[in-house]
Amino acid sequence: MNLLLLSNSTQYGRGYLEHALDTVTSFLPANARLAFVPYALADHDTYTARVRDALEPSGITVRGIHEHTDPLAQLAASDAVFIGGGNSFRLLSALCRTGLRDAVRDAVRGGLPYMGASAGTNMAAPTLRTTNDMPIVQPPSFETLGLVPFQINPHYLDPDPDSTHKGETREERLTEFLEENDVPVLGLREGSWLRVRDGVAHVEGARPARLFTRGTPPRELATGTDVSRLLTTAPRFDAPAR
Per UniProt, which keywords does this protein have (predicted)? Predict the structure, then answer.
């Protein structure tokens, strides 16, 4: 499989995808017909136009999957697929409703390049359980695409030692996840991404990632770190620590 999994699509002070544009355009085939999935936001047309404005100057043709009466046919006629960010629950619900969850999974496993950002990166993991989002809708299942066998937490935020907020930090929430599930979680900070190609995976981008595994302290992964061994993960969900 050929995957580009971005933590975020918009970086503070920069335009949409601008912080990763060179990586995105080199990842996508030349003059690609890109199927864009805008279901994580309510306004599909405006969202698609934003992606077009960012990518079409580079020769990429962006086609909103919602613009075709048959989204599965639109996917089949594309050279790559991009699932954008927004609310992960709304996104997954729409993917299930349209049949795209299974169709995208099969196409990507068959070689179609897959790009995700934020909620779209959540979709690449086995389940929705490590999203940061509020469940504004109820999908029929938490099962996502399972393109990688471990979990990802986009927009990972480090604990702020000066914060007076008493709710759980992101680190505490991921620790709670590991108390109930024996599955590694890769925390991708803003400006970072995961690149997977031909069975090899690397942390890339401007900032290091953070890896959470049951029974060990979180570990920093510098940009360029080879994390291919995570692709051999055998996830164990609903397996409480004893």
Answer: Dipeptidase, Hydrolase, Protease, Serine protease
